[in-house]
Amino acid sequence: MITVIGEALVDLVVSPDWGCHAAPGGAPANVAVALARLGRDVSLRARLSGDGFGSMMREHLTRNGISPRDFVDAREQTTLAIATIGDDGSASYGFYLDGTADWAWRATDLGPLPDDVEALYLGSLAAALPPGAAYIESFTQLVRSAGKVVVVYDPNLRPTATPDRNAERMRVERQLRQVHVVKASAEDLKWLYPDQSVREISRRWQRIGPDLVVVTMGGDGAFGLTKDGTELTVPPVPAEVVDTIGAGDSFSAGLVDAMAADGLLGRDGIAALAELDVSRLARLLTSASIVAAPTVERPGADPPR
Predict the structure, then answer these.
(1) 123-132, 199-208, 210-219: which range is least confident on average?
(2) Among 20-24, 83-87, 195-199, where is mean pLDDT lowest?
(3) How far apart (Å, rounded) are the C-alpha atoms in residues 25 and 173?
(4) 140 in helix, strand or coil?
(5) Pick from 86, 111, 240, 299: CA 20 to 30 A from residue 71's CA?
(6) DSSP code of residue 228
């Protein structure tokens, strides 16, 4: 079982001609859906509202094959994200956050992981915003310390919601100490470290803790750095871009799916990640890129099966 923890919200997608529609979203929820569509057993530990959007989200998640065992009932309303699509298909985000379900985590919402869990995936706003971020951080530290579960992390920064660059840099680097694998976008890295290259930042992060650092670079492909210093860049998979919503989440799911196929989850996976060679790294990056490509070719976060 792969457990994903984080937000499950509603995207209000706005196109350049002022068209607007609601769609299920939230980066962790998107990752969980993508993993389930790839045939993996997956649960999502998310706070789901009892309002109309929350009911729709539950139906969406379970219909896509996600186990409901970790759903947390929330009294607060569903979070809304405004995703504005540019002429090039890229998405920018704004959020209605205050008092909503995703940011009201309690310690009691984060009980121990069941014994069948081999990987924990987390990141995005749930790992960044108080009060829940502190609970999730403590929970992740306990999971990492137990040495049974591979922890995968995507900061997936949202500067409109967390605009303090220095505070975000400190927060991300603190959380990097708790994970085995980190995946980020070049856009995230550029915002956090404006004057450094992808390679420099990846090496900085690798010294902090993760055994594997992966960076998506859009049209420049995907970059990986292993614990022994091995670097690899794979080219992008050709795709006609409609919009980029959910593309990074599909890449993350493809990465975790490929890790599962290559025996890189669970206690044995922790040891294997520390000895990752270039051929296995190539498989991981290429598989993740193949999963991400179809997602940009259709509107919204609609990962492939």
Answers:
(1) 123-132
(2) 83-87
(3) 26
(4) helix
(5) 299
(6) T
Residue whose C-alpha is closest to residue 198's, from 189, 210, 209, 188: 189
Binned at pLDDT 50, 70 and 90, residue 73 comes out as very high
Distance CA 33, CA 305 (A): 10
Q: Quick check: bond before 163 cis, omega within 30?
A: no
Are 247 and 218 in contact by the 8 Å Cβ rule? The answer is no
What does each C-alpha distance from 109 to 5, 52, 71, 261 come to in angstroms? 11, 22, 9, 30
Under the phi-then-psi rule, with left for phi > 0, alpha for psi from -120 to 50, and beta for the rest, what region is 246? left
- pTM greater than 0.90 (yes/no): yes
d(CA 295, CA 303): 5
* Widest distance between CA atoms in the chain: 51
